[in-house]
Structure formats: C-alpha cells, structure tokens
Write a structure and sequence with these properties.
Strand content: under 5%
Structural class: mainly alpha
Oligomer: single chain
Mean pLDDT: 81
Number of strands: 0
Number of helices: 10
Distance between the termini: 16 Å
Order of helices and strands: HHHHHHHHHH
Radius of gyration: 18 Å
Helix content: over 70%
Largest sheet: none
Length: 226
Amino acid sequence: MLPIQANATNTVALWPGQFASIAAYWEDLKHNFRLLVPLGTAALLGGLAGGIVLLRTGQATFLHLVPWLLLVAALLFAASTPIAKWLQRRAAGRETERMVSGSTLPAPEPSMVPLFMGMVLVCFYIGYFGAGSGFLVMSLLAIFGVEELNQINALKVVTTCLANGIAVVTFIVEKQVVWQTCLLMMVTAAIGGYFGARYARRVDARVMRGMVVAIGLGMAAYFFWR
C-alpha cells in the first residue's frame, strides 16, 4: 500500500474507537465545558490543515519522513511515564499549596491564547501523522493551566478525536482510504482493544511499555534502513 494511503486508512480505521471513548470521560468533561469550544476549534483547524498537507505531500517525501515520525512517536511513548508522573506531582503540589494557604478559590483559568495556538500546532501533527500525540496534548493542557489529571485526559480524548475526525472526513472525501483493509482493521482493533483492556493489567506495565517502545524503535530503524 502507498504510504499516504496507509496512513489515511489507519487514521480512519482507529477513529471510531476514539469517538466511543469520549463517553467514558463525560463526567470529567462537565468541569471544562468552557474549554470545549476553543479547544475544539483549534483541533478542527489543526487536524484539517494536517490532513490537507499530508495529501499534498509526495509519496516519496512522506516515505522519507516515516522513520523520523516513527522515531518521534516511540520517544513520545517512552516519555509518557515521566510526563504522567510530572502531571501528578504538579497537581498534588497545587492542591497542597491551596490547603496550606487555606484558599477556597477555584483553580486559575487556563491561558487561552497560547493554549489555543499550541493546540492548533499539536493537532496539525495529529492530522498529519498523530502517533504519540496524546502526551503532547496532555503536557500542553497542564502547562497552560489545566490541573486535574482526569480532566486533562478527558480534554485530550475530545481534542484528538476532533482532530482525527476532521482528518478522517478529508481522507474519505479525497478517496485516500483503502476500504477493504480499513474495515478489517476496524474489526480487529475492536477485538484487540477489548481483550487488551481486559488482560493487559495481568502484564507488568514496564514490560508492556518496553515492548511498545522496542517495536516503535524497531520499525523506525527498519524504515531508516530501507
């Protein structure tokens, strides 16, 4: 399969699972309804631009970019544990400060303009390639003022879903999806997601993370070699 069609097909195949996961975060989203419009707008703008630029990239050029993109994705996943620990420490530190000071004031409002601009850039990457982008979204939200980890996760799911969703529409309209492969991937991704969620906790998280990073680095090395 040509590389751009492969990327488009992958995005379309995995998007329904992303959309379905929004329901699991509904309660946490209620705390940040005011952020959904600006972040959703940024996600749609960035995702659309990324999808269009992908389709305007030559096949050979994109193939040369693939190993670098895979390397970035593997490194982002490797960094996910430090990022998660940093987010937890940051939230705990803010809560401790409020308890010590006896403050009952709500958390400060996020810095909307830099958050919006940063989200457009991250969602451009999501529309163009996307792997590992969830940790970029989480870090961006935390840096610009969203403190509670579950709320960060909820906003991450919505923004990545919207960015990928507009890219999905673009890929379908431009007829870049290989549907026989896409439909098979949808079925197998649903099966893998179900059994993964059910049995992954029986595997040591460090072993699982190491396997994923090793596969990502191995794929990057293979494409560099090619």
